[in-house]
Design a protein that fits this description.
The chain is α+β, with helices and mostly antiparallel strands. 32% of the residues lie in helices and 30% in strands. The protein has a 3-stranded antiparallel sheet with strand order 1-3-2, covered by helices on one side. The model has no long low-confidence stretch (mean pLDDT 79).
Length: 93
C-alpha cells in the first residue's frame, strides 16, 4: 500500500487527540499503527499517525501541526550529537 501523505497528530491531552483523529477519519483519513507517547520531563504528549491515500483528499492539507516549543530542536540536536546528558537537562526547562 502506497501512502501519499501522512502526518503525526500530537497533543498533550488524550481527549483532544481523540477528537482531532476522529475528525480526520470522518474526512476520509486512516490511522496507521497504534497510539504513541513521548515523555519529556514533566510533560506527556500523545501522537497518532494519520494517512490519506486519495490524492484528491485535502484533509491533511487543512491540518496544521502545532508549533513545538523552541527548546525541542535544541534537545534533538544535542541527542543526535551523542550529548544525551545535556539533552536530558535541556528537556527539563
Amino acid at each position: 500500500m502506497k501512502y501519499n501523505r501522512y502526518t503525526n497528530v500530537l497533543r498533550d491531552n488524550i481527549d483532544d487527540l481523540n477528537q482531532v483523529v476522529n475528525d480526520l477519519i470522518a474526512q476520509g483519513c486512516s490511522v496507521v499503527g497504534g497510539l504513541g507517547m513521548i515523555h519529556l520531563s514533566t510533560k506527556l504528549f500523545y501522537y497518532q499517525t494519520i494517512i490519506v491515500e486519495d490524492e484528491n483528499n485535502e484533509a491533511l492539507g487543512n491540518y496544521t501541526v502545532p508549533k513545538e516549543p523552541d527548546y525541542l530542536a535544541e534537545v534533538r540536536r544535542l541527542a543526535l550529537q551523542g550529548q544525551k546528558l545535556e539533552a536530558n537537562g535541556r528537556s527539563k526547562l
